[in-house]
Amino acid sequence: MTISTTIIKNSANGNGSTSAFTYSFKITDDDDIQVIIRSATGTETVKSKGTHYNVSGVGNNSGTVTFTSGNIPASGETVVLRRSTTQTQAMDLIDNDPMSADTIETAHDKVVAITQELQEQVDRSLKLSRTNTMTSTEFTTSATDRASKILAFDSSGELSIAQELGNVKGNWAASTAYVQRDIVKDTSTNNIFIALTAHTSSGSQPLTSNTDSAKWSLLVDAASATTSQTAASNSATAASNSATAAASSASTASGHKDTATTKASEAATSASNAAASFDSFDDRYLGAKSSEPSVDNDGNSLITGALFFDTSSGVNALKVWNGSAWITVTVTSANQTNINTLAASAVVADMALLATTDVIADMALLANTDVIADMAILGTSDVVADLNKLATTAIVEDLNILATTDIVNDLNQLASSDFVSDLNAIEGIKANVTTVANNVAGVTSFAEKYRVGSSDPSSSLNEGDLFYNSTSNVLKFYDGSNWVVVSAVTSSTITGQTAETSIADNDLILISDTSASGALKKMTKANFVTGLGSASSIADTDSDTQIQVEESSDEDKLRFDTGGTERAVMDGNGIALTTNGGSFIHHNTIANDTTLANQNMLLVGNVAITGTLTIGSNSTVVVI
After folding, report:
1. If you count Cβ atoms within 10 Å of the first and of the last residue's Cβ in the chain, which end, N or C, has fewer?
2. Hey, is 79 helix, strand or coil?
3. Is the pLDDT assigned to residue 424 strictly greater than 70?
């Protein structure tokens, strides 16, 4: 034979019902095929011939693998059929013996088959490109030494075993076994440390003075940030004192109190919005990190669209979370234009000014967590707009007025917990108050139509008014002259009542529901008569179109009339059409001698004919 295809593998999806799967390559033995099931989670299982499946088509260019009962691939599983030729050489040539062409060709075919299978494995392997070089693709690090570490490339581009990634262990605790690269938080200083060597912790915090301090390396100096925060807070206090001193020079205040209160409320709202905006921003941009994070800066799940800058070696790129993985962000042509703008000489000069010692010192003060958070709030569009408003002459004058002793006292009173609680309560029912205000006429009207009291009202009475008497605990309606008690009607209310023998035109007919609910249904006489007609017929208003039951006593026939003319009669033998000579549909017995003239007859099933059936002119009989 020859091998004219390079296909050695087929795959298909399971569905829980299909048991036979086709392979499109030649095998010379049913052991030369490997059957693999890959689960939805990626687990691969090699199946056994005879136990899990059977093979047909050996020696042909294609064949079938049929799974046994109980082993049919389920939905979500992938079936992989792969040729796996035994890597042995069975041809034994003897000197001077005839050489069969088929024997030699079979041996060559087996070599080609094994070569194709090896090539398929090579195609699935990591390898250097044809123009790339590497001194060695081997590494000698033992399994113990490379456990929990990552395979990387060194500074020469050669394979190496790198340090393992850091593992966040939360707050530091004594008597805990830590391994190299574990990351902990010192709760006494809020500093973040990484373990340099494996050890069991002892002693107490801070870790800088702990007996194991040499086994830890500082990653984040939160203590210094706290010191900067305190300095900023002191500066803020000093600024506040200066504002108070400046406020003492203001004169008139009473005329602008309401305006100032409104502006203060708007500023507070803007501050709240700014805080929410910063928290939202902090969840979306996670900052610079040396590895891809699995949670956001608050420890919550990542949101789709979150960003961080990957500082790991060879990456140094911005990445975005697409909901399941981190994707490197590429620069668009528009963004490149913006980058080129930043590279302009004037911008470079401005950045050089920012790099001076004094500016760097100032920015260091601004870089602590609280100041950054405050600036993030101040940078939102709402706060910027509010600050622009505050900078106008009129607002400055108003603020000077606000700084007077009387106004400050008033504002302090407004800020007390009781006032804040009251304002929050008013805010909570604002929508309801607005709704009532927009419908005050309806509210007033309802108050006039429905009242509650211990005795029936005697004034301002209108027909249809409702009143709940709290003395007798009943609901009443005013019928124009008296208060009438409203009572419920149920199936039990009419139990034992005598049935009416006559129904007037406007009477209400009550029909008891036979279901477990016992509900009552209603129908007027007009509805009832229109729907059912009389006891012996269903007819229209003038009775010229109707269905009659037994026109004469006990004739056991239905008669169908339209426009005053009888069109058909139905009895136990079938249907007879009485117009245009008449046609008949029989399914039982034709009694007596019957002659058809200008008539048609349809016989359905086994029909007995008593006497003679004569088919005259212009007549037809159809038997079904």
Report:
1. C
2. strand
3. yes
Torsion 560-562-564-566 (CA) sign: negative
User: Please, where are the H alpha helices in 81-158?
Assistant: 101-123, 143-146
**Residues of 297-333 as b/e, b for ≥16 C-beta within 10 angstroms?**
eeeeebeeebebebeeeeeeebbebeeeebeeeeeee
Q: What token pair was written down for 102?
A: 């088929």
The token pair at 323 is 């909901």
pLDDT in tens, 277-296: 677 788 888 888 988 999 99
pLDDT digits (tens, 9 = 90+) for 34-54: 999 999 999 999 999 999 999
Q: What are 182's strand-pairing partners?
A: 167
- The pTM assigned to this predicted structure is 0.33
Q: Phi first, then psi: what are they for 4, rounded to 5°?
A: -105, 5
* Distance (Å) of CA 32 to CA 21, 52, 55, 58, 617: 16, 16, 10, 9, 83
Domains and CATH numbers, the chain: 9-123 (no CATH), 167-220 (2.10.10.20), 226-424 (no CATH), 441-485 (no CATH), 491-532 (no CATH), 537-623 (no CATH)
Residue type, 373: A
